Amino acid sequence: MSRKALNSIYATLCALALGLTGTSAFAAPERVGDFALLDEQGVFHQISRYQHRDAVVLLAYDSSCPAARDAAAMLAELQPRFDGQIDFLALDINAMDRATEHGWKLSFPVLADEMKLVAESLKISQSGEVLVFNPQRLSLYYRGGAGEALQESLGAIVGSQSDAPASSEVKGCPIAYDSETLPVPDYSTEVAPIIVKQCTICHREDGAGPFAFNGYYSLVGWSPMVKEVIMNKRMPPMQVDSAYGDTPSAHFLPAEDRQKIMHWMQAGAPRGEGADDPLADVPLEKTFDWQLGTPDFTIDTAKNVIPAVGILDYMYTELELPFTEDKWVRAFQFAPGEERVIHNLSAFIVPADSDFWGEEREALTSERRFLGSFVPGENPATVFPEGSGVLIPAGYKLALQFHYYSHGRVLEDVTTIGLYFYDEAPAREIVTRPVSARFTLAPDDPEQAYLASYEFDRKATLLAVRPRMNQRGKNMKFDLALPGGKAETLISVPAYNYGWQPQYWLQTPRSIEPGAVVKVSGAFDNSLSNPFNPNFREAVESGFDADEEMFTGYLTYAIDR
Question: What is the C-alpha separation between 195 and 203, in angstroms, rounded?
Fold first, then answer.
């Protein structure tokens, strides 16, 4: 094709683009970053996960600001008009406690914006300001007040019209941000130590993370990604709702630390004056030394070959154990050979002649001898509570389930398991009970809730819980109801991510009496809004395979022998 013809085509395309966008109020939309927050009910909200809606309205709210209160009242009147098409949210810029937010009795969810990080990233200058998001494109349809211009804009969005206001004047209350008065955080003494503590367990050479933080320039280079995953709460992984439970297993980035990182990047990520670079001191190679000393017994798994590409099914293997007498495990550690590709590994102790995984597919609940699991980002060594242990009866074997990721090239993994034994049998045995539901997920539905429960028939001490779902898992919560009527939430995982399936050990184990019930509740998102969903147009059966879904809550508890 000649250059003249190419120029003609280019000119035609430009003219078409100008013609399509020239009269639209949404022609040059303001791009925004994704973000996620919890509301006053502990429900997770992420703007990019509203793709099943035409738009999302967000009000910057301060209960002490008359303009913000008036705007909330106006939005409450608008809300029924756009039910099922547009969702409405409030952004609590002061991040008040949930009881206070409940007391406002707004007609839409209230999102707590700790340290005003979301408001600052969205360049909100006043409480009472309203933003209307296009969740598909992460851009703004509208920024302004809650008056007639907003109504016109929303009407145009649902009516697929192009001529509508994209902005209007806001008469609210000014918002002050800490970045206006606080000094820029220092890299060496403030920012890098946070990254070392929270990130380098995975983000190191040959670690589970896709890249390594090994110095100042690596952090600067990855800073756009760091900002994204902090704002949408993808990192650090294994987050739970801090309003419930008391687990040391969860990972958190305190609001003050998030603010330091964000303000440092906002200021241009300066190196600062400090000579030390804590990230440069992180070990360059993976090291899985035995954290508890030399194990009493070690065993290697068979070599697993992981393909370069593709979604991989679970791999199952069994390991014969040489024990001719009972062994009581007080601690264990997994030492993976190829950490980069392990999604999770589970190890059960089973009779030599059993078809454990075949039985596991059929059982909704049953008591198991569960040794433990390995998940990237967790401490690979586990020490059981004093006086309690997992029994390996004489003649039993290990049943292992591996789930791997592909990594772009063929890799091989041989994992070593180290066991530490009691000299004498402990007073209590640790067992694990999966509590499951069976179901069929409907296609294109963002909220499909399920419940499974177990009633204890004997005394026990509840030690840990573990949620397990696949790619369409949305959230899961564990509630304990005691016979006397007392109830509490043990753990709530408001944004389940199947890439991280840790066992959450309770800081304070719970004493269980007969009649106590643990309820496992949660939901699936089988819609376009779920970024992990391989196909939202199909119904999905429950099961163990990668193309199926599971809803299982594992309860780990100690019982008297």
Answer: 9
> What is the β-pairing status of strands 428-436 and 552-560?
antiparallel
Classify 387 in phi/psi space as left (phi over 0), alpha (psi -120 to 50) or beta.
left
Q: How far apart are CA 338 and CA 412, in angstroms?
A: 7
pLDDT in tens, 321-360: 999 999 999 999 999 988 888 888 999 999 998 877 666 6
Is a pLDDT exceeding 90 seen at residue 474? yes
Give the length of the chain: 561
- The span from the CA of 442 to the CA of 436, in Å, is 18
β-strand partners of 384: none
Contacts of 427 (CB under 8 A, 6+ apart): 387, 388, 560, 561
CB contact at 8 A, 419 and 295: yes
Q: Closest by alpha carbon to 62, among 107, 98, 92, 90? A: 92
Report CA-CA distances (Å) from 93 to 25, 230, 443. Answer: 28, 18, 36
**Whether the bond into 236 is cis, omega within 30 of 0:** yes
527 DSSP assignment: S
Between 64-68, 236-240, 434-438, the lowest mean confidence (pLDDT) is in 236-240
Tell me how far apart the alpha carbons of residues 389 and 292 are, in angstroms, rounded to a whole number: 16
pLDDT band at 98 (very low <50, low <70, confident <90, very high): very high
Return the exposure string of 448-463: e unless at least 16 CB atoms fall within 10 Å of the residue's CB, then b. bebebebebeeebbbb
Per-residue pLDDT, 287: 57
Residue 108 and residue 486: Cα distance in Å, rounded? 30
Task: Report yes or no on whether pTM surpasses 0.85.
Answer: yes
* Residues 304-330: tens digit of each pLDDT: 999 999 878 888 899 999 999 999 999
DSSP calls for 202-256 = TSSTTSSSSS---SHHHHHHTHHHHHHHHHTT-SSSS---TTS---SSS----HH
Using the predicted structure, report yes or no on whether residue 25 has a pLDDT greater than 70.
no
Quick one: average pLDDT of 465-484? 95
**Strand, coil or helix: 185:** coil
**CA terminus-to-terminus distance, the chain:** 83
Distance CA 434, CA 544 (A): 13
CA quadruple 170, 173, 177, 181: dihedral sign = positive
The Cα-based distances of 420 to 394, 411, 416, 465, 531 in angstroms read 16, 29, 13, 23, 41
Structure tokens at 485: 């009527």
Our CA angle for 500, 502, 508, nearest 5°, is 145
Q: Are 349 and 390 in contact (CB under 8 A)?
A: yes
DSSP output for 434-450: EEE---EEPSSEEEEEE
Are the CB atoms for 228 and 34 separated by under 8 Å? yes
Domains of the chain: 26-178 (3.40.30.10), 182-281 (no CATH), 288-354+380-424 (2.60.120), 427-561 (2.60.120.230)
Separation between Cα atoms, residue 441 and residue 365, nearest integer Å: 21
